[in-house]
Amino acid sequence: MSDFSKIYFLGIGGIGMSAIARYYKRKGYPVAGYDRTPSDLTKELEEEGISVHYTDDYDYIPKDVTSTLVVYTPAIPDDLGEFVYVREHGYTMVKRSRMLGELSYGQTCLAVAGTHGKTTTSTLVAHIMTEAGPGCSAFLGGISKNYGTNLLVSQNRIFVAEADEFDRSFLQLHPTVAVITAMDADHLDIYGTLEEYQKAFKTFASQVTREVIVKKGLDITPEDTKARILTYSYDDPSADYHAAGARPDKLGHYIFDLVYPGGVVKDVRCGIPGWVNVENSVAAAAVCLSQGVNPEAVKAAIGTYLGVKRRLDVHVASPELTYIDDYAHHPRELSSAISSIKAMYPGRKLTAVFQPHLYTRTRDFAEDFAKSLSAVDKLILLDIYPAREEPIPGVTSKIIFDKVTAPEKVMLKKEELMEYINKEPLDVLATFGAGNIDRFVAPLAESLEERIRK
Q: What is the pLDDT of residue 2?
């Protein structure tokens, strides 16, 4: 980085990109960038003094080619005007994943990988290390509700990272300790087959130097890594780390005994609700215990963890009306989130709004999505959010909708959602998806709060 005096980001509003932009801004670099649309996150970046624009216009790019480093995300389309400009004019360009790898070099890297749960788990690791341990720097895949950011900076050499498998990004990391939460098929537009996808996780495991903590049952073996392999589970007593006696309190927060190789920590209470967060807490605890954090301090920090925005995020909570928002965009994530919500609010009617994310993911997992969504009482299904993709003929939300067997279901365009919801009798409402459904969270919460007041 010493060769560059400015850093320019293409796709600066992405959750991973914004953390790196924030880091270099804090280091004193002039930081600027482009994103397609404004968001709460880009607004925060602007408030922190980072210049962000939303028009594809190369006039915004610093013209001193030799002193400007361009960081880009693979989600940027190849034909984006600014992307074409920097390629053709000889700028030094690096992917976001390589930047993260460079930042982690020479540090004790604690990484969390997996198809699901990695954002909550890595953010919880960062929280435990900050509150109960020696502190850490952390580059997170979501906004921590404890700290209001996706970036933590510390003077010590502990580095917590969410290891994202998209575009094989996580292979830029060489962790000291890593968690692998799941290896269910995803990103088949990148990998082609489940076998290739899982092979990437095995390669990731081979790059871990000390311990790989894998969810019990995953196919990571001593042939895949020289690191010590330990297992964790929600409640499998044969796992090295597991929960025993997990039970919810009246607010849906689970209390459990944490069993680990050194003993048992009694009556750990999750700071956030849902059974799935017991499993995430066990994984995070395993990482922090491996770093020598005191077990009772780990217990206390799990209890003060407030979670991540858009991960089982409760916005309205009353006996007559509840609203939860979640980032789930894969069938297995949806199943975990839906079963967690139903366990939190037994006997209540669950209405779910789901916005599919990507044409390829919809095509590849339509049947699995339908099976997961059939567990709700009423489904409101929106159009596909395309993100970086062009439409695929014959691939629409309808290929999910037709297979859903929920008692009630309806398809809507997102522009129709607010009017529909405002007329709909509701008990428990949940919104799911990784697209722009998050833009509805604040207006929905406001509308539902107003309904309660009436």
A: 63
